[in-house]
Write a structure and sequence with these properties.
With about 400 residues, the protein is mainly beta. About 10% of the residues lie in helices and about 40% in strands. The chain folds into four domains: about 5-50; about 60-170, Immunoglobulins (Immunoglobulin-like), CATH 2.60.40.10; about 185-250, no CATH class; about 275-395. The protein is built from three helices and 29 strands. It holds the Pfam family SusE.
Length: about 400
């Protein structure tokens, strides 16, 4: 059959089949074949670039198995972990971490992990005693008790991982709390807020792990908590030492005002009784007014007749505060609270509130004092609140 006859049959067919020249079809098939070959080569190239590597187990060199450590968080002591580096099949850099587990625990659920120095690249790390105390705490070892943990080195290059053989370490914990709380409250039947957690009194955080509060205690029990909703720490002060415990009996059977200082870094805490707060008037060289404790670290005096000291050159309006304290063994001392400026000016109605901030000062007669604005009747507040800066307020009438 000739090509002309074939064209005639297609044109007359009711199926309306389009005619495609053979030369064009061959060109399309050829182009498609080339694309398939390119894709196949690309797939082969990807397969050859897949990462295939190995990693050898790190071998621990220090500390020795069954090493015993008496933890002293307040020192600069460290426990150094060191190991032989792992080798990888394609020379990628391995990274390391020290992993701890309970003595009878499982490394799939570690209690503590420390990444080695230089973001995990080095084959050693020095762990401070303070952090080792956290390891012991996580293992369930209580204060002044000894227990054991397991540890091992884990290496990885991001593709494969390996571990050293596990070793054991004996840890002896000191007094004190391993994890410093960021917030702290006092609550219980002996406290100003009673046993209602919603009324727990906050302590002022002076620095990491160091807290202070001015408050009154009465007969009953108290405890220290880190949170009023989801409490994870409950502690008490027992013979000057911070200990984990549910609660403890108040140090007094009658209402007394205390300054309570707590240092979780050393485990030391103190109760200092505040016996009196007075206004020291410099010109008279004496305490002329005494304030009464109200609540939540605030002392008040209402309707005080403020009088300046007559002098040959005029009238002296300078003053500061003197606080009489008694420590746990009965020693009585006087603490002075004044301003930050040695020779202060007299305040006006526009004076900033920072003028009234209280700072510990010396016991000199005239230095670092404030000045009364008026000779008039006034209400005075000495404010040692945990929720704000220590300050005072004078309201003239």
């Amino acid at each position: 059959m000739s090509s002309e006859s074939l064209k005639l049959m297609i044109a007359s067919s009711p199926l309306k089949i389009n005619y495609i020249p053979m030369k064009i079809t061959i060109k399309y098939l050829f182009a498609l074949s080339i694309c398939c070959l390119i894709l196949m080569q690309a797939c082969k190239k990807d397969e050859t670039n897949l990462v295939e590597t190995t990693i050898t187990d790190p071998v621990a060199k220090a500390p020795n198995n069954n090493t015993a450590v008496i933890i002293n968080p307040s020192s600069n002591a460290v426990v150094t972990f060191e190991w032989d580096q792992s080798k990888t099949g394609n020379y990628t850099a391995p990274f390391y971490k020290v992993v701890f587990a309970k003595e009878n625990g499982d490394f799939t659920k570690p209690i503590y992990t420390v990444v080695s120095t230089r973001l995990g690249y080095d084959n050693k790390v020095a762990i401070s005693h303070r952090e080792m105390n956290k390891v012991a705490y996580a293992a369930g070892i209580k204060q002044l008790e000894t227990g054991k943990v397991k540890w091992r080195i884990e290496a990885s290059n991001g593709v494969v991982a390996s571990t050293s053989a596990s070793a054991t370490m004996e840890l002896t914990r000191p007094t004190g709390i391993a994890e410093n709380p960021t917030t702290l409250f006092i609550t219980g039947t002996a406290t100003e807020g009673g046993a209602d957690l919603k009324k727990a009194l906050p302590l002022k955080r002076l620095s990491d792990g160091v807290f202070e509060v001015y408050t009154s205690l009465n007969a009953g029990n108290y405890k220290l908590i880190d949170n009023t909703t989801t409490t994870t720490l409950t502690a008490v002060i027992d013979a000057g030492v911070v200990k984990e415990a549910a609660e403890i009996t108040s140090p007094t059977t009658t209402k007394k005002v205390y300054r309570i200082n707590i240092d979780f870094n050393t485990g030391v805490a103190t109760f200092t009784e505040i016996q009196s707060v007075g206004i020291w008037v410099s010109g008279f060289n004496a305490i002329k007014y005494t304030l009464d404790y109200d609540a939540e670290g605030v002392w008040k005096l209402n309707n005080a007749a403020i009088a300046w000291k007559p002098e040959t050159w005029g009238r002296d309006e300078r003053y500061k505060f003197r606080v009489t304290e008694k420590d746990a063994v009965g020693n009585v001392t006087v603490k002075n609270w004044g301003g930050s400026v040695k020779d202060n000016v007299k305040p006006t109605s526009t004076t900033a509130l920072t003028y009234y901030l209280l700072k510990p000062v010396d016991n000199t007669q005239y230095d670092f004092t404030f000045k009364f604005a008026l000779e008039a009747t006034a209400d005075v507040e000495f404010r040692m609140s945990a929720l704000a800066d220590y300050t005072h307020k004078i309201t003239y009438k």
